[in-house]
Amino acid sequence: VSEEVERALAKLGPPRLSGRSSPKQIEGPDGRSLQLHFRSRLSLPLFTGGKVEGEQGAAIHIVLVDSKTGHVVTTGPEASVKLDVVVLEGDFNNEDDEDWTQEEFESHVVKEREGKRPLLTGDLQVILKEGVGTLGDLTFTDNSSWIRSRKFRLGLKVASGYCEGMRVREAKTEAFTVKDHRGELYKKHYPPALNDDVWRLEKIGKDGSFHKKLNTAGIFTVEDFLRIAVRDQQKLRTILGSGMSNKMWDALLDHAKTCVLSGKFYVYYNDDTRDVGVVFNNIYELNGLITGEQYLPADSLSDSQKVG
């Protein structure tokens, strides 16, 4: 599939190029101006130890383009070069100038902090095929908080020994932040899932006092929380205690209510004749009434029917 995508990319129209010439730009011997481009945007935010992926988990594609024509270069030795993947300072080329020198690019390459593992691990080289390539598995081992701009970029350059004497302008991604994976481990979910731990809800910190109080009361999941919230909100507030303000409670409840329910229903009959049944969803909200062969949704019931 990846190869089919790559072939299709090569046939696509040109990426957005500025079309401006610059004294820094070095043309190939045949008058072409070769540039590498990322065709895919990264899926953000990025965490240490997590896989670097394109948006929605897609592969990250790279193309070699002749900026004079805007077309992908599919033939010639340069269409099959090997590329090195590097990490750049986030503030490299902030002006969005399309052109820079090889020296400028190299001067913004970021190496690991002293005593740390290599900053980027995985498939650190890409081989172009007919001017198109795909990044392999890549993982950051360190966050970006220590760098001047507090952000990184990924960069691509032609590997040593290829395209000697010819300038191929490097590629760069947008600037992005890399956070410690601890942040992901403690991350809230939007929307939360029924089987999520209850601390995935806003205002409930993992292993914090609210989390411990809920666990002590037998509330371990978002579903547990919602079931009590439907039946007895005051009980839930009492469990959480006075440390939870009205504003925090509202935020917590609003977040919990965004949870997608399972679609499972329960019917409660008051006797064996099964003439009248009360329908509840999986968090025990009243969903409707079954009388004989008729189903009455909850919003159509009168107050007396609900009480009855």
Per DSSP E runs of 2 or more residues, the count of β-strands stands at: 17
How much of the sequence lies in strands comes to: 15-25%
Parts with pLDDT < 50 across at least 5 consecutive residues: 13-26
The CATH topology of the largest domain: Immunoglobulin-like
Task: Summarize the model shown.
One of its GO terms (biological process) is regulation of salicylic acid biosynthetic process. With 308 residues, this protein is of the alpha+beta class. It has 3 domains: 2-183, Immunoglobulin-like, CATH 2.60.40; 188-257; 265-307, no CATH class.
Key phrases:
3 domains; alpha+beta; Calmod_bind_M; Calmodulin-binding protein; 5-stranded mixed sheet; transcription regulation; 4-stranded antiparallel sheet; elongated; Immunoglobulin-like; 308 residues; activator
Please provide a written account of the structure.
The protein is built from eight helices and 17 strands. With about 300 residues, the protein is an alpha+beta fold. It has three domains: about 180 residues, Sandwich (Immunoglobulin-like); about 70 residues; about 45 residues, no CATH class. The strands form five sheets. Strands 1, 3, 4, 8 and 11 form a five-stranded mixed beta sheet that branches. Strands 7-5-10-12 form a four-stranded antiparallel beta sheet, with no helix packed on it. The chain has a four-stranded antiparallel beta sheet with strand order 14-15-16-17, with no helix packed on it. Strand 16 and strand 17 form a beta hairpin. Helix 5 packs across helix 6.
